[in-house]
Write a structure and sequence with these properties.
2 domains, two-stranded antiparallel sheet, 27% helix, DNA Binding (I), subunit A, five-stranded mixed beta sheet, 206 residues, 8 helices, alpha+beta
Length: 206
Protein backbone atom coordinates (compact mmCIF):
# COMPACT_ATOMS: atom_id res chain seq x y z
CA UNK A 1 0.00 0.00 0.00
CA UNK A 2 2.91 2.33 0.72
CA UNK A 3 3.83 2.42 -2.96
CA UNK A 4 0.26 3.22 -3.98
CA UNK A 5 0.07 6.08 -1.47
CA UNK A 6 3.15 7.58 -3.11
CA UNK A 7 1.40 7.68 -6.51
CA UNK A 8 1.27 11.11 -8.11
CA UNK A 9 -1.89 13.22 -8.22
CA UNK A 10 -2.29 16.45 -10.20
CA UNK A 11 -3.55 19.34 -8.06
CA UNK A 12 -5.69 22.15 -9.52
CA UNK A 13 -6.57 25.46 -7.93
CA UNK A 14 -10.20 26.56 -7.60
CA UNK A 15 -10.10 27.91 -11.18
CA UNK A 16 -9.05 24.49 -12.57
CA UNK A 17 -5.47 25.58 -13.21
CA UNK A 18 -2.78 23.03 -12.40
CA UNK A 19 -0.53 24.21 -9.58
CA UNK A 20 1.45 21.20 -8.39
CA UNK A 21 1.80 17.44 -8.25
CA UNK A 22 1.37 15.74 -4.89
CA UNK A 23 1.22 12.21 -3.51
CA UNK A 24 -1.93 10.12 -3.15
CA UNK A 25 -1.41 10.19 0.62
CA UNK A 26 -1.53 14.00 0.67
CA UNK A 27 -4.45 14.03 -1.77
CA UNK A 28 -6.54 11.75 0.48
CA UNK A 29 -5.71 13.96 3.47
CA UNK A 30 -7.06 17.00 1.60
CA UNK A 31 -10.16 15.10 0.50
CA UNK A 32 -10.97 13.81 3.98
CA UNK A 33 -10.59 17.34 5.39
CA UNK A 34 -13.00 18.59 2.71
CA UNK A 35 -10.29 20.92 1.38
CA UNK A 36 -10.42 19.36 -2.08
CA UNK A 37 -12.63 17.36 -4.42
CA UNK A 38 -11.87 14.68 -7.01
CA UNK A 39 -11.97 15.72 -10.66
CA UNK A 40 -12.60 12.86 -13.08
CA UNK A 41 -12.40 13.29 -16.85
CA UNK A 42 -15.27 11.27 -18.33
CA UNK A 43 -16.02 11.31 -22.07
CA UNK A 44 -14.45 14.72 -22.48
CA UNK A 45 -16.34 16.22 -19.54
CA UNK A 46 -15.30 16.92 -15.96
CA UNK A 47 -17.10 15.28 -13.06
CA UNK A 48 -16.67 16.59 -9.51
CA UNK A 49 -16.84 14.25 -6.50
CA UNK A 50 -16.51 14.90 -2.81
CA UNK A 51 -14.80 12.25 -0.70
CA UNK A 52 -17.96 10.36 0.44
CA UNK A 53 -19.26 10.14 -3.14
CA UNK A 54 -15.87 9.05 -4.50
CA UNK A 55 -15.75 6.36 -1.82
CA UNK A 56 -19.21 5.10 -2.78
CA UNK A 57 -18.14 4.88 -6.43
CA UNK A 58 -15.28 2.59 -5.45
CA UNK A 59 -17.22 -0.66 -5.77
CA UNK A 60 -18.51 0.23 -9.25
CA UNK A 61 -15.09 1.39 -10.42
CA UNK A 62 -13.53 -1.77 -9.06
CA UNK A 63 -16.07 -3.85 -10.95
CA UNK A 64 -16.02 -2.07 -14.31
CA UNK A 65 -12.64 -0.28 -14.41
CA UNK A 66 -10.27 -2.40 -12.31
CA UNK A 67 -7.20 -1.52 -14.40
CA UNK A 68 -7.99 2.19 -14.82
CA UNK A 69 -6.97 3.06 -11.25
CA UNK A 70 -4.63 2.19 -8.45
CA UNK A 71 -6.46 1.01 -5.34
CA UNK A 72 -6.25 1.50 -1.60
CA UNK A 73 -7.88 -1.22 0.49
CA UNK A 74 -9.10 -0.21 3.93
CA UNK A 75 -10.94 -2.25 6.56
CA UNK A 76 -14.32 -0.89 5.40
CA UNK A 77 -13.94 -0.20 1.68
CA UNK A 78 -11.72 -0.16 -1.41
CA UNK A 79 -11.12 3.26 -2.96
CA UNK A 80 -9.56 4.34 -6.23
CA UNK A 81 -6.59 6.70 -6.09
CA UNK A 82 -7.72 9.92 -7.83
CA UNK A 83 -5.60 11.20 -10.69
CA UNK A 84 -6.69 14.84 -10.34
CA UNK A 85 -7.99 16.84 -7.36
CA UNK A 86 -9.18 20.44 -7.11
CA UNK A 87 -8.49 22.65 -4.11
CA UNK A 88 -11.72 24.30 -2.96
CA UNK A 89 -10.20 27.41 -1.37
CA UNK A 90 -6.99 28.06 -3.32
CA UNK A 91 -6.90 30.74 -6.02
CA UNK A 92 -3.18 31.32 -6.49
CA UNK A 93 -1.77 31.02 -9.97
CA UNK A 94 0.89 28.45 -10.92
CA UNK A 95 4.53 29.41 -11.15
CA UNK A 96 5.66 30.63 -14.55
CA UNK A 97 9.32 29.66 -14.32
CA UNK A 98 10.76 26.18 -14.75
CA UNK A 99 13.21 25.59 -11.93
CA UNK A 100 16.78 24.97 -13.01
CA UNK A 101 18.15 22.09 -10.94
CA UNK A 102 19.89 18.73 -11.28
CA UNK A 103 16.68 16.71 -11.20
CA UNK A 104 15.08 18.73 -13.98
CA UNK A 105 18.20 18.56 -16.17
CA UNK A 106 18.28 14.77 -15.78
CA UNK A 107 14.55 14.59 -16.56
CA UNK A 108 14.88 16.84 -19.61
CA UNK A 109 17.69 14.67 -20.96
CA UNK A 110 15.90 11.47 -19.80
CA UNK A 111 19.03 10.30 -17.97
CA UNK A 112 20.82 9.99 -21.30
CA UNK A 113 24.43 11.14 -21.53
CA UNK A 114 24.41 13.93 -24.09
CA UNK A 115 27.78 12.85 -25.45
CA UNK A 116 27.73 9.05 -25.79
CA UNK A 117 23.94 8.69 -25.91
CA UNK A 118 23.72 5.92 -23.31
CA UNK A 119 21.15 5.90 -20.48
CA UNK A 120 22.45 5.67 -16.90
CA UNK A 121 20.96 5.70 -13.38
CA UNK A 122 21.13 9.14 -11.80
CA UNK A 123 23.88 8.00 -9.42
CA UNK A 124 26.19 7.49 -12.42
CA UNK A 125 25.50 10.86 -14.02
CA UNK A 126 26.77 14.39 -13.50
CA UNK A 127 26.03 17.83 -14.86
CA UNK A 128 28.42 19.14 -17.46
CA UNK A 129 28.89 22.76 -18.51
CA UNK A 130 29.05 22.68 -22.32
CA UNK A 131 31.16 25.83 -22.20
CA UNK A 132 33.24 25.34 -19.03
CA UNK A 133 32.97 27.88 -16.26
CA UNK A 134 36.72 28.48 -16.62
CA UNK A 135 35.95 29.78 -20.12
CA UNK A 136 33.01 31.94 -19.09
CA UNK A 137 30.28 29.28 -19.25
CA UNK A 138 27.17 30.05 -17.19
CA UNK A 139 24.65 28.08 -15.13
CA UNK A 140 21.85 28.09 -17.71
CA UNK A 141 19.50 25.59 -19.35
CA UNK A 142 21.35 25.97 -22.63
CA UNK A 143 24.79 25.37 -21.11
CA UNK A 144 24.08 22.40 -18.82
CA UNK A 145 23.69 18.81 -19.96
CA UNK A 146 23.51 15.35 -18.47
CA UNK A 147 26.83 13.48 -18.84
CA UNK A 148 28.16 10.13 -17.69
CA UNK A 149 31.30 10.16 -15.58
CA UNK A 150 33.41 8.71 -18.41
CA UNK A 151 32.39 11.36 -20.96
CA UNK A 152 32.64 14.12 -18.39
CA UNK A 153 36.18 13.09 -17.55
CA UNK A 154 37.10 12.79 -21.23
CA UNK A 155 35.76 16.28 -21.98
CA UNK A 156 37.39 17.83 -18.92
CA UNK A 157 37.56 21.62 -18.80
CA UNK A 158 37.12 21.99 -22.56
CA UNK A 159 34.30 22.76 -24.95
CA UNK A 160 32.98 19.84 -27.04
CA UNK A 161 34.83 21.24 -30.07
CA UNK A 162 38.10 21.42 -28.13
CA UNK A 163 37.61 17.86 -26.89
CA UNK A 164 36.60 16.59 -30.33
CA UNK A 165 33.27 15.24 -29.14
CA UNK A 166 29.75 16.21 -30.15
CA UNK A 167 26.48 16.74 -28.33
CA UNK A 168 23.72 14.37 -29.43
CA UNK A 169 21.23 17.26 -28.98
CA UNK A 170 21.50 20.95 -28.28
CA UNK A 171 20.42 21.77 -24.70
CA UNK A 172 17.24 23.84 -24.37
CA UNK A 173 14.98 25.42 -21.79
CA UNK A 174 11.77 23.34 -21.45
CA UNK A 175 8.37 25.01 -21.44
CA UNK A 176 7.11 22.93 -18.54
CA UNK A 177 8.56 20.83 -15.76
CA UNK A 178 10.52 18.01 -17.47
CA UNK A 179 9.58 15.44 -14.81
CA UNK A 180 5.93 16.22 -15.47
CA UNK A 181 6.43 15.77 -19.21
CA UNK A 182 7.80 12.29 -18.56
CA UNK A 183 4.62 11.37 -16.67
CA UNK A 184 2.42 12.57 -19.52
CA UNK A 185 3.87 9.74 -21.60
CA UNK A 186 2.21 7.19 -19.32
CA UNK A 187 -1.39 6.13 -20.12
CA UNK A 188 -2.15 6.30 -16.40
CA UNK A 189 -1.69 10.08 -16.45
CA UNK A 190 -3.27 10.76 -19.85
CA UNK A 191 -6.17 12.65 -18.22
CA UNK A 192 -3.68 15.27 -16.96
CA UNK A 193 -3.27 16.49 -20.52
CA UNK A 194 -6.71 18.10 -20.44
CA UNK A 195 -5.38 20.57 -17.85
CA UNK A 196 -1.90 21.03 -19.32
CA UNK A 197 -2.36 21.68 -23.03
CA UNK A 198 -0.62 24.89 -24.14
CA UNK A 199 0.51 25.53 -20.57
CA UNK A 200 3.72 27.45 -19.92
CA UNK A 201 4.25 26.77 -16.25
CA UNK A 202 6.18 24.61 -13.85
CA UNK A 203 4.95 22.40 -11.03
CA UNK A 204 6.95 21.09 -8.13
CA UNK A 205 6.88 17.35 -7.46
CA UNK A 206 6.09 17.09 -3.75
Amino acid sequence: MEGVLNSKVLVLNRSYMAVRVTTARRAFHLLVKNLAEVIAVEDGHYANYDFPTWTELGSLQRQYEPDAHEWVQTVRFCIAVPKVIRLLGYDRLPKQQVKLNRRNIFARDRNRCQYCGKVFPSSELSLDHVVPRSQGGRETWTNLVCACTRCNARKGGRTPQQAAIALIREPYKPRRNPALTLRLGSPRYACWQAFLNDAYWSVELR
